[in-house]
Amino acid sequence: MHGLNDLGYYDTQTPLMAATKSHQDPAVLTTLVELRADPNGRASRTQLSSLYMCRSPGHVRALLEQKAELEHSALHGAAALAGPDTLRELLKRQCDPNYILAGRQERFGPLHAVALFSLSNRHAVEAARLLLEHRADVNSRSAPSDDFLWECRKARMRVAVLGFANCNMMTRLRASMSGISPLGYAALVGHGQLAQLFLDYGADPTPNDHGDTPEDLARRSHHYHLIPMLATFAT
Q: Where are the ANK repeats (predicted)?
């Protein structure tokens, strides 16, 4: 598909991917594959498959029945934008909750995906709890690489010149990304329930590679309601 970016379908995604992202009935996915859609096709921009974009347990079952390859990375997509039922279906099929998705330029775990997209996913807390119950590492750290690492460094310089509060969310995100933990992401986006859940499961206030603690990220993003739970020293 091409030219549908304004509708949320970036170029090189396929109709099968659109069917998953738009919450179509699983029978639509089955029919598309019967009409020769490739269940293992990938969007060239991201190298992600249709299984990554599943929004329901029925999507997962339909694609696997049509010979889609089961990939641990599907957990990341479900963690970001689907509900706990979809995650549960993937976990039942032995997807690893500690699998590090090595994309083209970044390495991160499912809990990072939950936290990063938590404000747009009303199931984020339930999804994170389910992953944690399956022993996802609450203190895993992301690792940008290659060209994207340079983008993160440029964002860091921009923040240093303009100030954190004067940069847009994408710049702040990239400037903070290297070495960030799931708790750091929750602090950065301002999700209090998720931050508390991570702390309840033993999250450490570990700084990112630039020395920014979750408390620092919350304060710089003006999420002052998170400061009491994130404070690392008594005041």
A: 178-210
